[in-house]
Structures are given as structure tokens and as C-alpha cells.
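Regression test case RT-17, inverse folding.

Input:
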């Protein structure tokens, strides 16, 4: 038995490949470093869904289409308004995506063309739902999306009510690209299991969001930043790590099931965290993070993962901490939906077995005789 399905191959995929020994991540043949340096999130998303990089016309059309679909159906906005203001934003996102399904005319259509259209609508609207929820819980009106702004710039605009600097929009856009796809991780596998029953895309995505919420998966980016805030000063970092390790607790943003070397996404986010916090924020958080990283490598030989430096990038962008994981979902929606399409394209229900460890011979005892 492989606990946690470690090393178990459950399917073929042409979407993402992780070389855990070399620290390489490939989206459909393209190295993540190449894409992070040159492409935008929507360009990489288009490539993942269509298996080819868009030419200029195709990208313009795709960007315009998604920009035109950012508005939430009024009923979905009502669902968000109806939630308690202290609701967990990932719970809000589960509810919002389920509601988007209820308002989508093509919700039950699992044909590939319909799924591409639906995935576009979900990808366009997740950022709107996140920003609207944040404004509503702060007693403010949601800001209408601006179709002239790019995907990431528009999110920051809807969140703040002011247009962001280019450097801020680019940093957020690259982080979404880095979160886009990552093989058979827990949330993507969840999506595929749901899709394999021939349930629809929205239902699969709701499942993906639920799996991402946990701190061993997407919840780690928020937890990692909270940890840095708790450490507070560079001088405290080493002792803080030692204390946590002594208590046999995990340090969020470190370790990975597949990578045995540096997570290539962390390489970019470390650089972005440095540049962004020097230019716009407080370099202290990056310095504390470097010390934590150095100490973890020295004590345990464990590398940081995608979530560690992402927390600092989002913090420097002024994004509330509990929106870190919803933003991970705003990127991973691309991978989830691509995997649902791949699963529906060559489906067999996913149904593993378990090793039974209890008795097989117990007898029912009537309730008054127990
Ligand atoms: N902090 C401290 N120790 C860690 C650790 C961390 N973040 N991650 C792994 N380890 C240690 C474990 O304690 C275990 O040590 P042991 O063999 O002495 O018991 C060993 O490394 C293997 O870890 P394990 O939890 O069995 O690996 P896994 O493949 O089941 O889990 C993660 C992978 C990602 C869930 C795990 O590394 C983790 O919990 N990380 C923190 C959460 C996180 O950042 N998640 C985001 C992933 S992108």
C-alpha cells in the first residue's frame, strides 16, 4: 500500500510534468522558467487549454472574451452578499463557483468546446468574486471590472478601487502563471475524481477549491506569511525555526511530495519577493524569510516550495492575508479545468480500493441488549 498514494501513477497526462530530482516544471513542453520570464498568465492559460501558444490575434480575442465575462451574475453577487462577513474566503469561493454553475446555461454540457467556454467564464469571474467579497465584508460596494485592464491589473483595481502600478500587476500575473498547473496534486486529483463520475466542470472546480483550502496544500501561502509576521525580526528567525522543529511541527511553505531539490517556482517568487519588497514594501520580511530558508536547509535539508515567498509578494501588494489561497485558486483554475477536459476526453471512473483492517465477523446485538 502506498500511503498518500506516493509514487502511484493513476493516469496519463499531457498537461504538466514535474522532474522532482532536477527541479524542473513543464507545462505542455514549455519550461516554467521560459514562460515566467516571457509569457503572461492568460497566454499560458490559452496554451494549456489549446496546446499551442496563441498568435497576437488569438491572444487579443481571448483576452477580450475573458474581460467581457468578468461581471458576476446578480444572483451570484447576492450569494456572496448573503454570507457572514467573517466567512472563510475559500468557503465563499466554493459557494460562488457552485452558484456560477447554477447560473451557467451550459453547466451540464461536458463537451470539450462547452468546457473551454465554461472554464473561461469561471477563470474570468473568480477574481471578481474574491474582490467583491473583500469589499463587501469591509462595508464597501464592489468595484465593477474595467475591461480595459489586464487580468491581474483588473483584480487589484477591483480590490483597491485604484489602478495598480505596472510592476504590481506584472508580479501578480506571474504568480498566477506559476500557480497555473502542477500535475496530479491533491486539488487537481480531486477535480479529476469528480469529473470521472461525469459530473460537470463547476462541480469539479468546487471540489478542487475545497482540497486547496487545507494548509498542507494551498493554505500554506497564507500560513507562511503569518509565520513571518509572528517571527517579526531577523534575529528571531533561527531560534523560532529551532523551537518549531523541536516540537515536531511543520513549517509552512517548506517540503514537497515530489521535489527533492528547489521548487523552480520558488526561484522566481524569491526574486520577485526581493525586488518587490525593496521597491514597494519592507525588505525585512524577505530578510526574515531568507534566514528561515537558510535554517531549514541547514537543520533538515528541506527546501522551500511555491507558497513560501508568494506570501511576501501578496503581502507587499497589500492583499489581505486570507485572500492568498483564493488567489492560488485564481491561477490553478487553468490547470483544474484543463485536467477536467482531459479526463472527460478519455474517461474511466476513478475508483481505487483500500486495504481493510477491521473485523469481518461481528454480529448485530439488539439495542436493549447492549
Ligand atoms: N516542516 C518540517 N518538517 C517537514 C516539512 C515542513 N514543512 N515538510 C516535511 N517535513 C519532514 C516531515 O516531518 C517528515 O519527517 P520524518 O520523516 O522525520 O517524519 C519528512 O519531512 C517527510 O514529510 P512528509 O510530511 O511525510 O511528506 P509528504 O510528502 O507526505 O508531505 C507536504 C508533503 C508538502 C504536505 C509537507 O512537506 C508539508 O506538510 N509541508 C508544509 C505545508 C506546505 O508548505 N504545503 C504546500 C505544498 S506546495
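Golden output:
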Amino acid at each position: 500500500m502506498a500511503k498518500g498514494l506516493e509514487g502511484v501513477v493513476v493516469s496519463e497526462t499531457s498537461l504538466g510534468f514535474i522532474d522532482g530530482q532536477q527541479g524542473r516544471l513543464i507545462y505542455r513542453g514549455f519550461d516554467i522558467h521560459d514562460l515566467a520570464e516571457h509569457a503572461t498568465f492568460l497566454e499560458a492559460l490559452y496554451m494549456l487549454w489549446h496546446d499551442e501558444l496563441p498568435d497576437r490575434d488569438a491572444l487579443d480575442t481571448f483576452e477580450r472574451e475573458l474581460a467581457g465575462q468578468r461581471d458576476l451574475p446578480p444572483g451570484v453577487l447576492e450569494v456572496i452578499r448573503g454570507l457572514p462577513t467573517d466567512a472563510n474566503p475559500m468557503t465563499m469561493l466554493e459557494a460562488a463557483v457552485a452558484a456560477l454553475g447554477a447560473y451557467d446555461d451550459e453547466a451540464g454540457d461536458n463537451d470539450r468546446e462547452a468546457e473551454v467556454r465554461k472554464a473561461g467564464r469561471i477563470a474570468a469571474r473568480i477574481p471578481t468574486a474574491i474582490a467583491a467579497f473583500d469589499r463587501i465584508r469591509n462595508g464597501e460596494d464592489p468595484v465593477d471590472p474595467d475591461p480595459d485592464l489586464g487580468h491581474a491589473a483588473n483584480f487589484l483595481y477591483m480590490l483597491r478601487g485604484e489602478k495598480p502600478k505596472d510592476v504590481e500587476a506584472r508580479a501578480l500575473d506571474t504568480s498566477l502563471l506559476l500557480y497555473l498547473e502542477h500535475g496530479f496534486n491533491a486539488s487537481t486529483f480531486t477535480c479529476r475524481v469528480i469529473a470521472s463520475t461525469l459530473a460537470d466542470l463547476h462541480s469539479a472546480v468546487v471540489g478542487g477549491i475545497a482540497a486547496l483550502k487545507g494548509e498542507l496544500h494551498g493554505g500554506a501561502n497564507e500560513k507562511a506569511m503569518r509565520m513571518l509576521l509572528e517571527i517579526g525580526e531577523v534575529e528571531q528567525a533561527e531560534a523560532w525555526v529551532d523551537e518549531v522543529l523541536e516540537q515536531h511541527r511543520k513549517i509552512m511553505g517548506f517540503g514537497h511530495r515530489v521535489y527533492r531539490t528547489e521548487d523552480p517556482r520558488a526561484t522566481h517568487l524569491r526574486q520577485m519577493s526581493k525586488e518587490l519588497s525593496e521597491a514597494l514594501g519592507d525588505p525585512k520580511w524577505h530578510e526574515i524569510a531568507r534566514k528561515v530558508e537558510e535554517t531549514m536547509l541547514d537543520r533538515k535539508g528541506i527546501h522551500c516550495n511555491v507558497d513560501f515567498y508568494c506570501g511576501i509578494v501578496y503581502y507587499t501588494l497589500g492583499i489581505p492575508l486570507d485572500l492568498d489561497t483564493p488567489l492560488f485558486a485564481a491561477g490553478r483554475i487553468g490547470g483544474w479545468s484543463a485536467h477536467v477536459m482531459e479526463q472527460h476526453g478519455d474517461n474511466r471512473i476513478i475508483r481505487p480500493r483500500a486495504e481493510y483492517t477491521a473485523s469481518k465477523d461481528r454480529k448485530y446485538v439488539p439495542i436493549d441488549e447492549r
